[in-house]
Amino acid sequence: RAPGAPSPSPGPERNTAGAAAAARPGAVPGARSPSPRPWLVWYGSSVGGFSGIYTAVAGNAGTERMVVGGGSYNAQPVLSPDRRRVAWTKGQETASVRSIWIAGADGSNPREIPLAKCAVYSVCEYRWPTFSGDGTRMAFMRGTANSTCTAAENCDEIVVYDTRSGLVSAVGYGDSPEWSPRRAEIAYSGSAGPEPRQACEAMNCADREIRVVEVSGGEPQSRRVGSVLGYAPRFSPDGEWIAYQSAEAAATAVVRRDGTQERLVVGCQQPSWAPDGRLACIMSVDGGSDVFLLDADDEPAQRLTFTRGAEAQFRIYAL
Questions:
Q1: 96-100, 110-114, 135-139 — which is least confidently predicted?
Q2: pTM of the predicted model, to two decimals?
């Protein structure tokens, strides 16, 4: 535990019903003990009424810092593979429509990515940015800001954006895409075809599957991964595991990318991964919620943030 970090709260109950007994991420080959290099937690928050993208040194209270801010909404930050850029979802003060912004990792030169407006929507928005492993492409959700739309409008598409040419192509239907760090494939919450929109920012995505689509060329074909419905999938650093928020329980589902060795971690929500391959998630503590690192038995091992209001969709990077 980091100096000054309080003892973690009691561990959550674990539910492995229906899941194969399997090696845990953090105990799998390639997982390492915590690096001597400090970790930085990136997250979006509106602490004190100031919406922005924040960082905090993992395990150290009082290190929170706003990197970029402004607007009515800032969330879903992600760093480029070279750690020089941060992309995130931003909402303007004058409208609820959200778009993708990018800046230097130090907050310099923030700007909106110039994306074409949707031809079929009265109001179009982009959310959930993610970078390809080489940083030359991004993926995000493109959809309507309206509460409902018809299936003919291809609601909530997963699109790929080429950062060099500016070309955008649709590869699936859904929300919350996540690019694999090791392969040309994207995990997302969605369906095999168009469907009425389901806003996946709350626990109302009960009809969405976790799917993986290859984006190496040719006609994109997606496959379902895992039996638990949910959203916001995250690849482990080695690209072999996917963790995501269950829509069926207050829990995290973890599954190998081939759909095997599935399990639930009850009490662990909005998961992500630490640089050493261990699972991290939002857990309730001290009347609020913060990010905790889990051990190989899915028990809380270390408290990483101390805001008591950590925003969902956090990420952890080694400095």
A1: 96-100
A2: 0.83
